[in-house]
Specification:
Chain A: Pfam families: ABC_tran, TOBE_2. Chain A: One of its GO terms (molecular function) is ATP binding. Chain A: Keywords: ATP-binding, Nucleotide-binding, Transport. The complex is a heterodimer of chains A (about 325) and B (about 270). Helix content of chain A is about 30%, strand content about 30%. In chain A, a hairpin with a 2-residue loop joins strand 9 and strand 10. A 6-stranded mixed sheet of chain A has the order 6-7-8-3-9-10, with helices on both faces. Chain A has 2 domains: about 230 residues, Rossmann fold, CATH 3.40.50.300; about 80 residues, Nucleic acid-binding proteins (OB fold (Dihydrolipoamide Acetyltransferase, E2P), Beta Barrel). Chain A contains 10 helices and 18 strands. Chain A is globular. Chain A has about 325 residues and is an alpha+beta fold. By secondary structure, chain B is mostly helical. Chain B has a single domain, classed as Orthogonal Bundle (MetI-like fold), CATH 1.10.3720. Helix content of chain B is about 75%, strand content about 0%. The chains are: A alpha+beta (about 325), B mainly alpha (about 270). Chains A and B meet through strand 6, helix 3 and helix 5 of A and helix 7 and helix 8 of B.
């Protein structure tokens, strides 16, 4: 495995704010890597560190083995799709897409051909002469993508690229991005605060919290075996069972995570009072209080839905309860 | 019922106000064609075009005009360079004392010209700099920079910062980024600022009287002419030219900065 991007003890502090604090990270060549976290968790700063817009306060960043310490953004073989797209308003679509080639000194005909191909790739053939202001949000997003891949970067950075799109378009673009990434074979580093997006698109996900990485794992692993209560809660809103509660069941004094869909309503088990009922379409979400613990339960459409205030019994397989043994209580 | 039409009285007042400001200008224009050359007599006893020929033949008019054009051009160029750099620094970076610097840049245009003039004159004297063409240019540059700065800083704020990063990201160094991204986006603001600066410099009197040596810029030449009556309508012919030379750039600046309210590079 070739390492595309390597962080060794990287920190970026802004005054007293530790935006990124002592991060170690390996991103493999050809990987679709997601950086997931709430706003202010340091994921965007990490992306800007890779692009070169920020310099680390401490630590080193290597891209394909080369130390990036003194390399300015314009000398890095890395391109970015910006959150606000950052299309040049004074240039038409063709000139926007071909900007990198123009700077590299390519001839007009080469630029035209490459830009046409890139636009074709993002399904925007024939839009070349329009100005960015004449395009819809989704179209601008595609232009930004075409502009970033035309230079054939070694690493493509995407900063919440789908955030401004509506749900339907977002799901479509998620599919297209995945296909495009396989087709190009470029390493993608994707920043998002949407856990569903990260889980569905990425090969591996780094979950950021307060400037550090809480866990790096495949989506599957992350969902089933979260290592900290934060990850369990942030990735798919899992129930986090406090240590005293877990101790009563399995004897070990650690917190544990429990997926809402793993909990069944049955005739015996843990007694609890239904506090709220929300119809979601494919299921009904219940909030059930068991003494000091409140659990989220998904009740399938086929089951009868209990009423608020009713006492029900919950049970689950002990294998579904994931004890987070690495966490200090 | 509420009406969109202004009341009759208000219309009259508006027209009277505009007439009060602009009719005297017409008077100046009319005197440029009068046959009476000793005093301003109304109505003019006769009309003639001979003063245009007389003005054309006068060496001193040409000297003053060319000096004014040179001073205005060079002051404008200096203002364009310094004003743009200053606007870029103020709008792109954060540093200690940024607000103070911003205020100090704008101050010369708020200060009465006579204070700028006196202080520059004392400073030049103290530094033993002889009054020359260049001292006039320096004097004018102090307020020309402000005009360019004000125009440029407003536009810089509207050019999204990620455009610069996008350009760098795509391989452009600072110079290429300025040439291909920043300049096209601020060009009209610079043109407008430059034109205003030129117009301001071209008819400046007060600072010039304090910073000029023996040279006469056009406005100063006109003042001199008024106290020494000789071929009076020549002054009026020159006045017409000054009005036209300053009016055109201001009109141009107005049209260039119209309809640029949207923020460049921020659309989603």
């Amino acid at each position: 495995m070739t390492v595309a991007v390597k962080f060794s003890g990287v920190s970026r502090h802004f005054g007293k704010v530790r935006a990124v604090d002592n991060v170690d990270l390996d991103i493999a060549e050809g990987e679709f890597f997601a950086m997931l976290g709430p706003s202010g968790s340091g994921k965007t700063t990490c992306l800007r560190l890779i692009a070169g817009f920020e310099r680390p306060t401490a630590g080193t960043i290597e891209v394909f083995g080369q130390n990036m310490g003194d390399v300015p953004p314009y000398k890095r073989e890395i391109n970015t799709v910006f959150q606000d797209y950052a299309l040049f308003p004074h240039l038409n679509v063709i000139d926007n897409v071909a900007y990198g080639l123009m700077i590299a000194g390519q001839s007009k005909s080469v630029r035209q051909k490459a830009a046409d191909d890139a636009l074709e790739m993002v399904a925007l053939g024939g839009y070349g002469l329009r100005k960015p202001s004449e395009l819809s949000g989704g179209q601008r997003q595609r232009v930004a993508l075409a502009r970033a891949i035309i230079n054939k970067p070694k690493v493509l950075l995407l900063d919440e690229p789908l955030g401004a799109l509506d749900l339907k378009l977002r799901e479509q673009m998620q599919e297209e991005l995945k296909v495009l990434q396989k087709q190009l074979g470029i390493t993608f580093v994707f920043v998002t605060h949407d856990q569903g997006e990260a889980l569905s698109m990425a090969d591996r996900v780094a979950v950021f919290n307060e400037g550090g990485i809480a866990q790096i794992a495949t989506p599957h692993e992350l969902y089933l075996h979260p290592q900290t209560p934060f990850v369990a809660d942030f990735v798919g809103s899992s129930n986090v069972l406090p240590a005293p509660f877990v101790k009563k069941i399995v004897g070990a004094s650690y917190p544990a995570s429990l997926r809402p869909e793993a909990i069944q309503i049955s005739s015996q088990g843990h007694a609890g009072v239904v506090r709220s009922v929300n119809f979601l379409g494919s299921a009904t979400r219940l909030s059930v209080q068991l003494d000091a613990v409140t659990l989220t339960v998904l009740c399938p459409l086929s089951d009868s839905v209990p009423n608020i205030g009713e006492t029900i019994y919950l049970s689950w397989e002990s294998a579904d309860m994931h004890v987070m043994e690495g966490v200090n209580v | 019922m509420h009406s969109d039409r202004a009341p009759f009285g208000l219309k009259i007042a508006a027209i009277a106000g505009l007439a009060f400001m602009h009719l005297p200008l017409l008077l100046i224009f009319v005197y440029a064609f009068t046959t009476e050359d000793k005093s301003y007599q109304w109505p003019p006893p006769g009309l003639t075009l001979e003063w245009f020929a007389v003005t054309w033949a006068r060496e001193d008019v040409w000297e003053a005009l060319s000096l004014s054009v040179k001073v205005a051009s060079i002051s404008t160029v200096i203002a364009l360079i310094l004003g743009t750099l200053c606007a870029a620094a103020i709008s792109r970076t954060r540093f200690f004392g940024r607000e103070a610097v911003s205020l100090m840049v704008i101050l010369p245009i708020a200060l009465p010209g006579i204070i700028t003039g006196i202080s520059l004159r004392s400073a030049f004297n103290l530094a033993d700099i002889p009054f020359s063409f260049w001292t006039i240019v320096l004097g004018h540059a102090t307020f020309c920079v402000v005009v360019v700065y004000n125009n440029a800083v407003a536009r810089f704020r509207r050019v999204s910062g990620s455009l610069v990063e996008a350009s760098m990201d795509l391989g452009a160094n600072s110079f290429q980024t300025f040439r291909h991204v920043i300049l096209p986006n601020i060009a009209t603001a610079l043109l407008a600022g430059g034109m205003l600066a030129f117009a301001l410099s071209f008819d400046e009197v007060i600072v010039t009287t304090f910073t000029a040596g023996q040279q006469q810029t056009l406005p100063i030449w006109m003042l001199e002419e008024l106290v020494r009556p000789r071929q009076r309508p020549v002054t009026n012919v020159v006045a017409m030219i000054v009005v036209m030379v300053t009016f055109l750039p201001i009109l141009g600046a107005y049209y260039l900065t119209r309809g640029t309210d949207s923020v460049a590079g921020q659309g989603k």
